[in-house]
Amino acid sequence: MRKAGLVTGQILAALRDYAEPGRTPKELDALAARMLAEAGAVSSFKGYGSTLNLPPYPAVTCISVNDVVVHGIPHSKPLEEGDLVSIDFGAVLDGWNGDSAITFSVGNPEPEREALSQATEKAMWDGIAAAAVGKRLGDVGHAIQSSIKRSDRRYSIVRDFTGHGIGHEMHEDPDVPNYGRPGKGIRIVDGLTIAIEPIITLGSSWLIEDPDEWTMRTKRGGPAAHWEHTIAITKQGLWVLTALDGGKEELGKRGILVNDLAERLE
Ligand code: MF3
Ligand code: CO
User: Fold this and answer.
1) Which of 148, 161, 240, 244 is buried most, with the most CB atoms less than 10 Å from its CB?
2) What is the CATH number of the domain that holds 236?
């Protein structure tokens, strides 16, 4: 899964570099599709949904700009200075999945949007840091929830979506909510692999769906941010499979050890 995670993280990093005012989400999606093919990987997103009675998802990325919360279908409207863009991306390599999302400002950041993204990223890392063998998913959800609460009282957690188990399939059991109570929920066992993905809005988290049946927006028009990593939780420590450094920097700050399997393989 590390190999699939690395491909996922590397392509996301390239998309972030490529995004600038004037570039379109469609162009970013085309770059991602090219890089997937070069890596010998396939998309987990393209065609997704037909078994769920949804129109098959038409792209390899979800690109959600400003009031689009998640599942934005890449369009041809050029990105503008200060836009808050989240890119959600998944790759399958050798039958294993990586799933990750980043949010960033295009060009000169608009301060309120940028702060929302930074708080969401921090909450994701706080949630990851709370995961350990023997703990429970309520501990992870609680860490995310209290991190957001500490950041800004105007932020809302979007409860309509959760993180998830991941492996041979992009979405596996269990659900990983972005809220919870310490000591409650499913117990984490050695080797569990999950995607942790807080989705946060500035203002109300009430959502509406576009007629395309995918694009989700805030009803009130406020901005949203989404960060996601795929992680492995082991007795030897955590391994952030979609982070280029395996999670060393952010987990190091929090005094948490990264699985030294990461060291031995890289
Ligand atoms: N990767 C998303 C998630 O984090 C789901 C993408 S939906 C798709 O769970 F249709 F684009 F695949
Ligand atoms: Co996911």
Assistant:
1) 240
2) 3.90.230.10
